[in-house]
Each structure stands twice: as structure tokens, then as C-alpha cells.
Specification:
Distance between the termini: 64 Å
Family: Belongs to the UTP25 family.
Structural class: alpha/beta
Main location: nucleus
CATH superfamily of the largest domain: P-loop containing nucleotide triphosphate hydrolases
Subcellular location: Nucleus, Nucleolus
CATH class of the largest domain: Alpha Beta
Keywords: Developmental protein, Nucleus, Phosphoprotein
Pfam family, one: UTP25_NTPase-like
Length: 732
């Protein structure tokens, strides 16, 4: 591409963010507390004397509390509109063991651009000095030396092989009737059970594809990995390997082997059992290997054809060199936090370094460390949270970022303009602010036109941020670009010119849970002609088995005609049948758990209208309001506490004083059910028999219900169509 196009891409990549920065910083400022203030909050959780210490303060503030709360209430709904494109940002708690420490051991690049680590805005960055070095159009395979020459020979030989999955997938020429068939006919599916992944569902519109079988053993040489990856992958991945692995398969864990077996066939994949504690990092390594393998093969093909074109006779018109898309970016990785991007880049660099003596050249490394790293010393020493929370919120958890990565020969260029990048790593919010909305002057999504691999990792977290950003991205991927961006159309694949890119795009979707919104991405926005593979294991025992307090669980079923009407049906059912039972003063200390913020606003407005004695905590409540609400609820001065799921997700505070619990809707994360129930242990009352737990559900909550009570109980509850009473002792 031309230098000008790269400059313009850098501008379009940066400037829209300036418009969003004020709102973004306002939101961050309201939620970002100092380590000292967080320590105070933790002390508030761990010591009951806090209420007594603040007694005098509350006497003076008590008369003002409702007025302040009302003022906050008025601001919450407009505030949500103002932040429509900014999901809730939690306080940043860096972890002590992050990828930044490992990356920091690598040698510094003299060409790096220094920056302020606290710098939030992505400024314009055009690295003209490295432009020709990383241009695919002006480089040739002959310029490589040493190991790279071996790469060339091996790449060419494997690329010529008809068995190479990359060649098979990208060289496949679909017919127009096949494309029409994929868009009109329903998919046919088949079931298969694999040793590690479990129950798989294979689906495809084209009938010729047979069900894939799991390989018990994998020879790295049979995977058609690009030359350097064959030697670097076992070294990079050895941290996940144990003596359990057989000598014949020294490179992959059982999970990685089966996942990569599917990835390497270029089928779409949905894996809803990602666990940040158990398997998150080994999954990250597996998809980084696949993405890098794809990029190296694609770039090697272009460089090889450059040499062939240079050596051909003048005037020769050859159509055999169609090896590119309409734009250069091939892989898009969507991750929730900067720490995730940091770890991905570290894995990519490690996979490219053949040995310790020959480090690869990484441009702009210092700037990257400053903007994506974190300072372990900033973490409050007395912060106590569950292990899964610590794993998810490790390192830099800023969720507004995007970065282009260019890979060529023995070099990696960070902060490459998008139109000069091979891989783009971004958050949903980072993508949303550059894609823009219809009618905005500065918006750009042409760089998404030729994405060949889309990786969406930790999809469940986007439900806690803003799912609309993900949907907005899916609507703008693989569209024909509005401008040419300096492309040589004689090198563009026919699939791209025919606007069939979406039929060749592989989507890899990883989540910690199954959710209808996540399923809809996989079912409605993925059109891969190779078909899809989804892991569909049913939960045998639910999270209710982890409840350690003895209390009756009442599951109350509501009947709704469809998923949309269930929202209104749930509200009417709650105010007419459930709430009247708790209005009596005897039923004090009632916490109402509300997953949806909009349901929370509706309930809060209804409670105010009915003049009920309640307080409330949501993700937008200021620290002072949270402390007051918790104190009033503990003392019994407020009968009800409205409590949002997103607040619990980002803060995970212990709420004391709960005697009655109402789940307005089943929690998104099943383990939140047991966590909230077990908060009753902190209630200083021996009247265990008076504790209650009521859950509202409909037939459209089957996935959430199964995750809480197990699949067998779910089947019984859906068949009975009656309220179900369960008494859990912590053992059943």
C-alpha cells in the first residue's frame, strides 16, 4: 500500500477516540479509586465496627441520604444513555504475575517511542521509517537468510501440498449456487463425542463434509505448521505439559490437541467451557499458534509470488498470483482487557524466536509495555477476592484499546497502521469507537473487509461490558471496502472480489458459559463454508451443590409466550405475586439480585413510586452510596436492597445481613448463585429456619437453570410447570 494510505489509516484509527475521551475519562474517574480507598472498602467488609465508627457521621448524613439517593437516581438513566458506547469499567487492580514481567526481560528496541504509562488516548502514530521494511508488496523471499531460507523452502513445499489445510481452505473455489445454498438452506448437524471436549455438534449447509474424528496422538510435522513454529511451539507450550502426556505427543495438552485439530481444519468453533483459572492460558496459546501459522503462510505465499512476478518476462499477463484480500489485515482478535493483548503479543513473539541467541526485532516495544503493562506495586495488599476474580482482573484491565501488529520475516511491528497490519488485537469498545455509527464523519471499517480468522475470547465478559459493541462489530466485518486503499486488484483473490469473504472466514468463539446472546453470534453471524463445531456438554450437577448454608430454595415458574414478552411477564409476576409476600416487616433484610440494569432501573422506579423502604446498589453507584446502602441494609433500616449483577461481577463485595434472597432472574454466571447464597453465613442470626431464597425463571432460562440445578432437575422442572421447592444442605 502507499505511504499516504497508511497515514490516513493511522489518522482514522486515532482521531475518533478524541471525541469519546471525555465520556470515557468521566466514567473511569467515577469508578477508579486509589489503593488506599480500596483498602478502606475492604476494612468495611471485614469489620463490623465500621457501622459504629460512622454512627455520628450517619446521624448528620441520614437526613440527606434519600435526597442524595434521589439525585443519583435521576442521573443514572441519562448517564446510561450518555455512556451508551462505554461499558462499565471496573477499578484497575494489577496482578503481581503478569505477562509484562516476562516481556520486560526482552531487550529494548532503540526505535521505540516513549510514552506515559498513564496515557489513555491512542494518539496518531505513523512509523514511516519502518514502512518499506514491513510492506508485503516490496519484499521478497530471497531477502531472508539463515533459518528464514529454510523457512522458505519448507513453506513452499508444504504450500504446494494439496493436504495443507491452509491451501485447501483458501484455494477452494465456491460456486455461486453453493453460496446461495448456504444463505437459504438450513444447516444439517451430527453429533460426536470426543475424549476431552465431550459432546460436539457438527453442522454445515454443504452436505459433503464428514464428521471429524479426534486424533489421540498428533505429530507436529503432520500439522503443516510453518517451519519456525515446529521448533518453537514445544518450547513455548512446555509450561502446560506434564508427565501425563505421552512421549508420542510432547507438544499439546489433551485439550489443546483436540481444539487445534478443529482449528486447523478451518471450521468455526464454539467452546463455552473456558476457565480463567484452569484452561484459559492454554487455550490462548492454541489459538495464537493457529493465527500465527495462518499469517506466516499467507505472507510467505505473497513474498514468493513477488519474486515470481519480478522474474517473469515483461508484458506477461498471469492470473496465477491471486494471493491477497482487498485489505491486508487477516486476523482479528477480540479480547476484553489490555492485559490479554499483552499476553497475546508475548506468545506471538515467543513463537517467532527460534533460539535465545537470535532475538527477533520488535518495533515500538517500549511504548507497548508502557501502555499495556501494569505496576504490581499498585495492587492493594489487603485486597481479598475469589480466585476466579483475581484471574480475570489480572494486570491492566482498561477495556478501551486497539493495536495493529505486522509480521514479516524476522520482525514484528507493534502499532502498525491497520492497513499495514496482519493481526489486529482490540476490545469491543476499541472497535466500536473506530467503526463509528452511521452519519458520523470520521469512521472506518474497510480494514475488516478481508478478515480470514476472527477470534473472540472471553465472550462472557462482554455481556458484563456492552454486548451491543460485539453485535456492531459483526455487522461491519467482511463488507466490501468503500475505498481501494492502494490494493493491486490483479493480486486479489476472486472470493474477495465476489464479496464472499464471510463464507471463508473462520470464527473461533471462547466463553466461560453458554448464553443465548453468545449462541446467536455463532448461529446468525458465522457463514463458514467449512461448517461449524460447537461443544455442547450438559451440566450434570449445578452450582446449587456448592451452597453451604441450609435454606429452602423456591423456584417459581412464570409463563411467557416468547423471550421478548418474558421481560414484561417477569415484572408483572414479581410485583403481583412475589413482592406482596415480602412487604411485611417480618420479611426484612431482603436482597433482590437483578442481572439486567434496565430491569434494575424499572424496579427501582416502582419501589420509589410505591414508597417502599429500600436502598440500592448498581455499577454506577458512587462509593459513598455503596457504603450507606450496605450499612442501612445491615442494620435493618432498609427492608430491601436492589443489587445488580454487574456490580457483583466487578466488585465482589460481601453483603452482610441477608435473611431473604430473591433472584429476579437467574444469574449469568452460575457460580454467582452459590456465592450470593453463601453470603448468608455473614448474617449474625441463629434463626436459620427463617432464611428464604426465591428464584424466578421461565422456559427460556433453560441454560441458566441447568447450570444452577443440573440438567436432570431442569428437565423435571420444565415438565412439571409448577413451583419447585428444594432444600439444599451443602452436600446434595
Amino acid at each position: 500500500q502507499s505511504e499516504n494510505s497508511d497515514k490516513s489509516s493511522a489518522e482514522s484509527d486515532s482521531e475518533p477516540e478524541v471525541e469519546q475521551v471525555s465520556v470515557y475519562h468521566n466514567l473511569l474517574a467515577t469508578l477508579k479509586a486509589s489503593p488506599e480507598s480500596e483498602s478502606e472498602e475492604e476494612e468495611d467488609e471485614s469489620e463490623s465496627e465500621e457501622a459504629e465508627e460512622s454512627e455520628a457521621e450517619m446521624d448528620s448524613e441520614g437526613s440527606e441520604e434519600m435526597g442524595e439517593a434521589d439525585e443519583e437516581d435521576k442521573n443514572e438513566v441519562p448517564e446510561q444513555k450518555e455512556r451508551e458506547y462505554n461499558p462499565f469499567l471496573s477499578q484497575q487492580f494489577p496482578a503481581t504475575d503478569t505477562a509484562e514481567q516476562t516481556l520486560g526481560q526482552e531487550r529494548a528496541d532503540g526505535a521505540d517511542t516513549s510514552c506515559d504509562p498513564s496515557h489513555e488516548v491512542i494518539e496518531e502514530f505513523t512509523d514511516v521509517k519502518h514502512e518499506s521494511e514491513f510492506s508485503l508488496e516490496t519484499n521478497f523471499m530471497e531477502e531472508e537468510s539463515g533459518d528464514c531460507k529454510a523457512d522458505k523452502g519448507d513453506s513452499n513445499s508444504s504450500g504446494a501440498s494439496s493436504e495443507d489445510p491452509f491451501k485447501q481452505h483458501m484455494d477452494k473455489e465456491l460456486e455461486e449456487k453453493e453460496v446461495e445454498k448456504m444463505s437459504t438452506l438450513p444447516k444439517t448437524s451430527s453429533q460426536s463425542k470426543w475424549p476431552r471436549l465431550g459432546q460436539l455438534t457438527f453442522s454445515s449447509t454443504l452436505e459433503k463434509h464428514k464428521t471429524l474424528k479426534a486424533d489421540k496422538e498428533v505429530d507436529v510435522k503432520q500439522l503443516y505448521l510453518h517451519k519456525p513454529l515446529e521448533s518453537t511451539w514445544p518450547k513455548v507450550n512446555k509450561q502446560f505439559l506434564s508427565s501425563v502426556n505421552q512421549p508420542s505427543d510432547p507438544s499439546f495438552t489433551p485439550l489443546q490437541r483436540e481444539l487445534f485439530c478443529i482449528m486447523n481444519t478451518y471450521r468455526d468453533l464454539f467452546y463455552p467451557e473456558r476457565d480463567a483459572l484452569a484452561n484459559g492460558e492454554e487455550i490462548r496459546h492454541a489459538y495464537c499458534l493457529h493465527a500465527l501459522n495462518h499469517v506466516l503462510k499467507a505472507n510467505a505465499q505473497v513474498l514468493s509470488n513477488n519474486a515470481k512476478r519480478r522474474d517473469q518476462k515483461p508484458g506477461t499477463d498471469n492470473d496465477d498470483y491471486r494471493d491477497q484480500g482487498l485489505t491486508r489485515p487477516k486476523v482479528l482478535m477480540i479480547v476484553p482487557f489490555r492485559e490479554c493483548a499483552l499476553r497475546i503479543v508475548h506468545v506471538l513473539i515467543s513463537l517467532l524466536e527460534v533460539n535465545e541467541k537470535r532475538k527477533i526485532d520488535v518495533s515500538n516495544k517500549k511504548r507497548f509495555k508502557g501502555e499495556f503493562g501494569s505496576d504490581p506495586a499498585e495492587k492493594p495488599p489487603n485486597l481479598r477476592r475469589p480466585e476466579d476474580y483475581e484471574a480475570v482482573f489480572a494486570g491492566n484491565i482498561d477495556d478501551h484499546f486497539r493495536i495493529g501488529v505486522a509480521i514479516l520475516q524476522r520482525s514484528v511491528r507493534l502499532y502498525a497502521p491497520f492497513y499495514s497490519s496482519d493481526i489486529i488485537i482490540a476490545s469491543p469498545l476499541g472497535m466500536r469507537t473506530v467503526i463509528g455509527a452511521e452519519g458520523e464523519k470520521k469512521r472506518d471499517f474497510d480494514f475488516l473487509s478481508s478478515i480470514e480468522i476472527l477470534i473472540i475470547d472471553q465472550a462472557d465478559i462482554y455481556l458484563m461490558q456492552n454486548w451491543e459493541h460485539v453485535l456492531h462489530l459483526m455487522k461491519h466485518i467482511n463488507l466490501l471496502p468503500l475505498e481501494s486503499h492502494g490494493v493491486d486488484f490483479s493480486r486479489v483473490r476472486m472470493l474477495n472480489l465476489n464479496n464472499w469473504s464471510k463464507c471463508y472466514r473462520q470464527t473461533l468463539l471462547f466463553s466461560a458459559l453458554q448464553d443465548p446472546q453468545i449462541n446467536s453470534i455463532f448461529n446468525r453471524h458465522c457463514f463458514n463454508y467449512m461448517g461449524q463445531v460447537a461443544v455442547r456438554n450438559l451440566p450434570l450437577s449445578g452450582s446449587i451443590s456448592h451452597v453451604v448454608v441450609q435454606l429452602p430454595h423456591v423456584f417459581r415458574r412464570l409463563e411467557a409466550e416468547n423471550a421478548t414478552s418474558a421481560i414484561e411477564t417477569r415484572f408483572q409476576f414479581f410485583i403481583s405475586k412475589v413482592l406482596p409476600e415480602y412487604r411485611d416487616a417480618i420479611m426484612s433484610h431482603t436482597l433482590i439480585y437483578v442481572p439486567s440494569y434496565f430491569d434494575y432501573v424499572r424496579l427501582r422506579n416502582y419501589f420509589k413510586k410505591e414508597d417502599l423502604n429500600f436502598t440500592h446498589i448498581c455499577e454506577y453507584t458512587k462509593k459513598a452510596g455503596v457504603c450507606r446502602a450496605r450499612r442501612f441494609f445491615l442494620k435493618g433500616e432498609k427492608q430491601f436492597l436492589l443489587f445488580t449483577e454487574r456490580f457483583h461481577f466487578y466488585k465482589r463485595y460481601m453483603i452482610k445481613g441477608i435473611r431473604n434472597l430473591i433472584f429476579y432472574e437467574l444469574p449469568t454466571y452460575s457460580h454467582f448463585y452459590s456465592e450470593i447464597c453463601n453470603m448468608m453465613k455473614a448474617t449474625e442470626s441463629g434463626a436459620d429456619a427463617t432464611w428464604t431464597c426465591t428464584v424466578l425463571y421461565s422456559k427460556y432460562d433453560v441454560q441458566k437453570l441447568a447450570a444452577v440445578v443440573g440438567i436432570d432437575r431442569t428437565a423435571q422442572m420444565l415438565q412439571s410447570k409448577k413451583d419447585v421447592h428444594l432444600f439444599v444442605t451443602g452436600e446434595n
